[in-house]
């Protein structure tokens, strides 16, 4: 799982957000050398499958286990949680990303609207 997360972070940094997002949708199940991941629809499966080769090779090398393979299953019953954030929650999130947001709010005497 540690290498799975590292690879996902590497994808995020390189701008491959779709694959990183797919990897984070549901934690994979690991059984010996098989990694099972469930995705919510066929489109997600196709997108993941297109990038699976690089992920499998990465994991095989890092884990020194060349039997590793990834099995993708479509489970349309998976629910993707969505958060509805209010303006204060969004502001707090942006400050966590970039602390200069607080400075801008103070300099320009900005206030939050609901």
How do the helices and strands line up, and which of them pair or pack?
Elements (H helix, E strand, L loop, with lengths): L1 H13 L2 H9 L3 E3 L2 E6 L2 H22 L5 E6 L12 H11 L2 H8 L7
Parallel strand pairs: 2-3
Antiparallel strand pairs: 1-2
Give an overview in words.
- This protein is an alpha+beta fold and 114 residues long.
- It has 2 domains: 2-74, GMP Synthetase, Chain A, domain 3, CATH 3.30.300; 83-114, no CATH class.
- It has helices at 2-14, 17-25, 42-63, 87-97, 100-107; strands spanning 29-31, 34-39, 69-74.
- A 3-stranded mixed beta sheet has the order 1-2-3, with helices on one face.
- Strand 2 (34-39), helix 3 and strand 3 (69-74) form a beta-alpha-beta unit.
- It is elongated.
Q: Estimate the mean pLDDT confidence.
A: 86
Strand order of the largest sheet: 1-2-3
What is the CATH architecture descriptor of the largest domain? Answer: 2-Layer Sandwich
Succession of helices and strands: HHEEHEHH
- Note the quaternary state here: single chain
Ends distance: 39 Å
CATH topology of the largest domain: GMP Synthetase, Chain A, domain 3
Largest sheet: 3 strands, mixed
pLDDT under 50 segments (min length 5)?
Answer: none
**Content-based structural category:** alpha+beta
CATH class of the largest domain: Alpha Beta
* Tally of contiguous helical segments: 5
The overall number of domains is 2
Rg of Cα set: 19 Å
Percentage of residues in strands: 5-15%
**Per the principal axes of the C-alpha atoms, what is the gross shape?**
elongated
Give the number of DSSP strands.
Answer: 3
Helix content: 55-70%
């Amino acid at each position: 799982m540690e290498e799975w997360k590292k690879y996902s972070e590497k994808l995020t940094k390189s701008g491959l957000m779709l694959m990183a997002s797919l990897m984070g949708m549901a934690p994979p199940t690991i059984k010996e050398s098989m990694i099972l991941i469930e995705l919510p629809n066929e489109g997600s499966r196709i997108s993941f499958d297109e990038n699976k080769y690089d992920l499998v090779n990465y994991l095989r090398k890092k884990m020194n286990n060349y039997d590793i393979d990834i099995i993708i299953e479509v489970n349309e019953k998976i629910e993707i949680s969505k958060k509805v954030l209010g303006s204060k929650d969004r502001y707090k999130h942006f400050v966590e990303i970039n602390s200069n947001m607080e400075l801008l709010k103070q300099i320009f005497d900005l206030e939050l609207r609901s």
